[in-house]
Amino acid sequence: MISKKTDRANLEKRKGLFTEIGLVIALLFTLGAAEYTKEDLKVNTLQGISQAAGDEEIIPITRQELQKQQEPPKPKTIIIDLNIVDDNVKLDDDLNFDAFDADQDEAIKIADVVGNTAEEEAEEAQIFQIVEDMPKFQGGDIDSFRNYIQATVKYPALAMENQISGTVYVSFVVNRRGEITGINILRGVDPILDDEVVKALKSAPTWEPGKQRGKPVNVSFSIPVKFILQ
């Protein structure tokens, strides 16, 4: 069978040319795609950096000022004034110890006076209620003094007019000299009657003081004084 195709219609002769044209076109498409990808990637990268820069907070740059160091205080200079003299000058710095000599007896007397003063102050402040030798009033005991006060005290006329009566309880101290001190109203009735009891105690004679171990001491007492309307 005879082929009817002409040489112009025979494509087998141009197969190599078509292949080369196809390769060139494919290469152009590849290069074009690569260039487009690079430009797109560059644009996207620049936009991301700009957005990140816009979102980032701007932190101001600060500089800490250096504190001035305080200078340490300068040590004080102590100036000692020395009186420099020549070696040949004799200094009169001898102490006269004779003026400070004291007799042993005099030193003992001074110590005794100081000791006695302290002891006397302590004894003066101490008050007893019961001692070996109780104080005596005109040769009697506390009952004799209570009878004396009861007989001596006067009923105030103002209290009688106002019908004021009752019993006043009073305390006092017979000191080392037999004097009545430390008068205190324990339970009163009326200021008029209370004052009358105090006056009677202050005007009372002295006592014979009480003694403890042979020494006079302070002794406290308390007595009732009655005011009765007849």
Please describe what this structure looks like.
- This protein has helices spanning 15-55, 104-125, 142-152, 157-161, 191-202; strands spanning 127-128, 166-174, 180-187, 210-212, 215-227.
- It has 230 residues and is an alpha+beta fold.
- It has a domain at 127-227: TolA/TonB C-terminal domain (2-Layer Sandwich).
- Strands 1, 2, 3, 4 and 5 form a five-stranded mixed β-sheet that branches.
- The radius of gyration is 64 Å and the shape is rod-shaped.
- The N and C termini lie far apart (189 Å).
- 8% of the residues are buried.
- Residues 107-114 have low confidence and may be disordered.
Short description:
With 230 residues, the protein is α+β, with helices and mostly antiparallel strands. It is built from five helices and five strands, in the order ααβααββαββ. It has a domain at 127-227: TolA/TonB C-terminal domain, CATH 3.30.2420.10.
Q: List the helices and strands in order.
A: HHEHHEEHEE
How big is the Rg? 64 Å
Write down the CATH class of the domain at 127-227. Answer: Alpha Beta
Class inferred from helices and paired strands: alpha+beta
Low-confidence stretches: 107-114
Quick one: overall form?
A: rod-shaped
Instruction: Please bin the fraction of helical residues.
Output: 25-40%
The residue-averaged pLDDT reads 76
Largest sheet: 5 strands, mixed
- CATH homologous superfamily label of the domain at 127-227: TonB
Could you name the CATH topology of the domain at 127-227? TolA/TonB C-terminal domain
End-to-end C-alpha gap = 189 Å
Number of helices: 5
Q: Please name the CATH architecture of the domain at 127-227.
A: 2-Layer Sandwich
The proportion of residues in beta strands is: 15-25%
Q: How many distinct beta strands? A: 5
